[in-house]
Specification:
Number of domains: 2
Order of helices and strands: EHEHEHEHHEHEHEEHEEEHEHEHHEEHH
Structural class: alpha/beta
Oligomer: single chain
CATH topology of the largest domain: TIM Barrel
Number of helices: 14
Radius of gyration: 20 Å
Distance between the termini: 16 Å
Helix content: 40-55%
Strand order of the largest sheet: 7-8-6-5-4-3-2-1-9
Shape: globular
Number of strands: 15
CATH superfamily of the largest domain: Aldolase class I
Length: about 375
């Protein structure tokens, strides 16, 4: 695999109004106007430099942190940087993450005006007690209002993020969250099993849910969201027909992307470059750390992470993306996974079974 022009852009905004107990992403619980101004100035430098190696962008994803924690003026400046530094395809998917409690109509209107066409709201749970368990601040009750406002301003594509297998969460709690989500008529729903990550405040405070709890909640998501027309197209993601997150699909399939901001990662097809996960170091121009794998290992990684998707890989598509025949590259591993019932394969390609989705870490580790 060789280095190619970047097709997508990821922007990491590290600012939050408070860091949640489960969050392992690089973020700052509070920030000053001066820090955010310095961030935007450095971001412009990084974008202008990175744009030299970009093709016309097919997708933009602004995540964090909490992008909506920035002021309306700051978000407008950020959106202007994206438009001024890069060439965007006419159908470019432009997503931005937001929390309901830090969103308002002014922000939605200006984002829509600048070309943002997909919003992702972090709900996690509608239950106040479960939100307290994971250190989630604010209230998600306004999310329905913001979905309506987004549609009024032309943003029809909206995702809702949820966490399940929270300590103390019952199956009935989870089913209530799912039904409330469906009632709000989003186009996409993400459901993440709670993971207790090292370095988060949950470590030592709570224990992971049992396998039975996890499986029952997984099946409930399939049943309730499936009945509403959503398809589980990736381990944690459901979408209505045609509403899959194009940015994430490309990333899972080994597409190229430029990462801007502290802790952001870039992938050019030949290797990754990771920015420092430290605002001060990044502001001071600390260079990214480059990791380049041998071509066959890089191709195996693309094969493995593509199996996060329910569609898996078509052999022809994989060869076009990487230059390798998957069956020659990892034929023995593919055969073992098929024998274990984690993959199903035929002359055209391979895809994970239900068991392969449930135990996807096993699939990935076998293919790497």
């Amino acid at each position: 695999m060789t280095a190619d022009a970047f097709q997508s852009l990821y922007v990491h905004i590290p600012f939050c109004r408070g860091k949640c107990s489960y969050c392992a992403f690089y973020s700052l619980g509070e920030s000053s106007a001066n820090e955010r101004r310095a961030y935007l100035e450095r971001l412009e430098q990084e974008m202008r430099h990175g744009a030299q190696n970009c093709a016309q962008l097919q997708s933009v994803f602004v995540g964090g942190g909490t992008p909506s924690a920035m002021t309306a003026d700051e978000l407008e400046q950020l959106a202007g940087l994206v438009k001024n530094c890069f060439s965007l395809a006419s159908d470019c998917e432009w997503s931005m993450e937001a929390n309901p409690e830090s969103m308002d109509e002014e922000k939605i209107a200006l984002l829509a005006e600048h070309g943002v066409n997909r919003l992702s709201f972090g709900v996690q749970s509608f239950s106040p007690s479960l939100r307290r368990t994971i250190g989630r601040r604010g209230s998600p009750e306004s999310v329905g209002e913001w979905l309506s406002v987004a549609r009024q301003h032309g943003i029809q594509r909206c995702n809702l993020d949820f966490i399940y297998a929270i300590p103390g969460q019952t199956l009935a709690n989870w089913e209530t969250d799912l039904r409330q989500a469906v009632a709000l008529a989003p186009t996409h729903v993400s459901t993440y099993a709670l993971t207790i990550e090292e370095g988060t405040r949950l470590v030592g405070q709570v224990s992971p849910a049992s396998d039975d709890v996890f499986l029952n909640m997984w099946d409930a998501a399939d049943a309730i969201l499936g009945a509403a027309g959503f398809n589980r197209y990736e381990i944690s993601n459901f979408a209505l027909a045609g509403e899959e997150c194009r940015h994430n699909v490309e990333v899972w399939q080994g597409g190229t992307y430029l990462g801007c901001g502290p802790s952001a990662v870039s992938f050019d097809g030949a290797g990754r470059s990771a920015n420092p996960a430290d605002l001060t170091a990044w502001l001071n121009g600390a260079p990214p750390v480059r990791e380049t794998l041998p071509e066959h290992e890089q191709a195996a990684e693309v094969l493995a992470f593509g199996m996060r998707r329910a569609a898996g890989w078509q052999w022809q598509d994989f060869q076009q993306r990487t230059g390798f025949d998957a069956r020659q590259l990892r034929g023995d591993a593919l055969a073992r996974l098929t024998k274990r019932g984690l993959l199903t394969s035929d002359a055209l390609g391979a895809r994970p079974t239900r068991q392969g989705m449930l135990f996807n870490d096993d699939v990935i580790m076998e293919l790497l």
